[in-house]
Amino acid sequence: MTGEIAPVEAEIWGALPLMVGHRLIGVLALWREKAFSEDEWLKLQQISIYAAETVELFATFSEMADHLRRQAMLNDFALIVSSAQNLGQIVRRVFALLERTFGTELLSLFLLSSDGRTLREYQNLERRVLPRTEFLENHPIEKIVREGKNIRIENTEAQDYPFGENDAQSALLVPLKYHGEVIGVLTLGSKNIAAFSGYDENLLVVIASHLAGLVEYGRLREEAEARARNLGLIHEVIQQVIGLTNVDEVAQTTADLLVRHFSYELAVVLLVDRHQKLNIEGISGAAASLVKSAFEKFEYLSKEGISGHVFATGESMIVDDVSKNSLYTHIPGWDVGAEICVALKDGDKILGIIDVEASNKNAFTHNDLLALESLAGFLTSAVSSVDRYQMLQDTIQILQTTQEELQERMEAQRTAENRFLQAAKLAAVGEMAAGVAHELNNPLTTVAGFSELLLKDFPQESSQREDLEMVLREAKRARSVVRRLLDFARQSESLRVRADLNEVIEDVATLTNHLLESSNINFEMKLGKNLPWVFIDRDQIKQVILNLLHNALHAMPEGGELSLRTRTRQRNKKKWLTMAVQDNGEGISADDLARIFEPFFTT
Question: Most exposed: 106, 136, 246, 487, by fewest CB within 10 Å?
């Protein structure tokens, strides 16, 4: 105890350890103006013993509460985020969940493109998620992407913080890793100093690990779809450019098709003349005449501009907000928000530039950049020599093959995503199945065991033996249902054997006849004769039939007609065995019809 802790008027102070067993969990400090008597001190020691136990109990409860809150948050994550349909929806839901959990709106997500060149940044600004694309090189987040380490900043003014422009006083920066590779960075800021604890950091790491898989699936799917779509449009552009023998016509046709098929507001194709000067050879879009007239009056294509920089370096540029880029030169009458500029490169030689512009900021994505770079490669071939048109035909064939491969990848991606969503949706089934098995197996084992003992005592000719055998058989079937519930949670394969479907139906009918008759339901079975045997899981088919009959019973609370029919039918030149259950009840609503095959769905 230091003099700074005790009040100035205190003359006597004491300190008592709070012990649980042999473990020190805290210290009880006391001070006052007069000395403690021996009796007082003994009482204080006794109080400290009870206080230690109480403090320990409350600390334990607090840790349990924190753990439960963490589990609840992760459950919310699995239920809410995993069901998102696209990347934008995933980001919005994650931001809403993080804002509710950590009480801050200073949220950002940086996602690395598949080629590692650009970042797609999502920021939570005034409860709106605004995306923009920037190059990774020299970006403030580049160091974290390269090193892949968590960063917890207690004070942004005293520590190295890459985002000095926002109002954060403390921050957490956690990389998203998929299969060990960094695919992005999740950042969390607070306007308070030291707002985040080690527990918060660990929780954000867990969230980031779950988010990485979702983001990767969503990003790959969207990129695959966008690339397939863009490649299809590029294919149309190339098809119309091929065969043109005039370079100017190639440039103008390309600009027109970019505006028509890609919905760009302005597309410009600039080619180098024999004096190594860029000239507009193709221009199309809403502001085409205005921009072309401005270029004739003023030298906008300077080395200091965006186009001049791309021409000088050969490196593509994507600018989400031209007002923040010092290279951009404003053209009066044309308010540009975003721009992409791509070079036409033939080896080390620059033949020209494709430049597209939009009036809105953040109008372009990384896929637009990839599409224009792909088109630039084909356009370079057309511009460099008409003799290479045959080579372009071969390239188109490769493009078509690539498009087919991308379609296959998209299908595979959708399948993987569906499996991922299925896993998230059924995450709790295993836990439920274990509880059900524990509760049901014991009584079912008892029923089956005593049935077997009674069967040994009953003579073969006893009239009650057949009923007892049915009790034993159905008890074993009930135990099989429990095992199937566990098998379903594990997505395991069922056991199929050759069986007579009519025999299975009759077993179920024996169990339900009394219930149906007492419910005023006229049950009619029309079972086909000499039907072929089929490979089925007998217990599962029994459960299906029993569920269908119970559903029919619930659909006819006042009684009605119920029929069950089996027969053979031809379909796709194959012979099939069919079973149909029909009732005259209230039917299934249109809203529920689409969900009838969802596990555990009921109405």
Answer: 246
Concatenate the DSSP letters of all residues of 458-481 into one string.
S-TT-TTHHHHHHHHHHHHHHHHH
The C-alpha atoms of residue 324 and residue 334 are separated, in whole angstroms, by 16
Report residue 501: phi and psi, to 5°: -60, -40
Mean pLDDT score, 379-405:
70
- Say what the pLDDT of residue 387 is: 42
Do both 91 and 108 map to the same domain?
A: yes
At 581, the amino acid letter reads: V
Range 381-413 burial, b when 16+ CB lie within 10 A, else e: bbbeeeeeeeebeebbeebeeebeebeebbeeb
- Is the Cβ–Cβ distance between 340 and 316 less than 8 Å? yes
CATH of the domain at 164: 3.30.450.40
CB neighbourhood size of 530 (10 A): 6
Same domain as 324, residue 311: yes
Torsion of CA 464, 466, 467, 468, to 10 degrees: 90
Q: Are residues 295 and 166 in the same domain?
A: no
**437 & 307 share domain:** no
DSSP 80: I
Nearest to 252, CA basis, from 272, 282, 278, 279: 282
Residue 407 lies in a domain: no
Q: Does residue 66 surpass a pLDDT of 70?
A: no
**Amino acid 3: pLDDT:** 41
Contact 334, 354 (CB under 8 A): no
- C-alpha 561/C-alpha 564 separation (Å) is 10
Predicted TM-score (pTM) of this structure: 0.41
Residue 128 belongs to domain spanning:
85-224
135 bridge partner residues = 118
d(CA 367, CA 396): 20
Tell whether 507 and 524 lie within a shared domain.
yes
- Number of structural domains (the chain) is 5
Please tell me the total number of residues recorded for the chain in this structure. Answer: 603
pLDDT value, residue 457: 76
Rounded to whole angstroms, the Cα distance separating 510 from 428 reads 35
Q: What is the pLDDT of residues 72-111, one digit of tens each?
A: 666 666 666 666 667 778 888 888 888 877 888 888 899 8
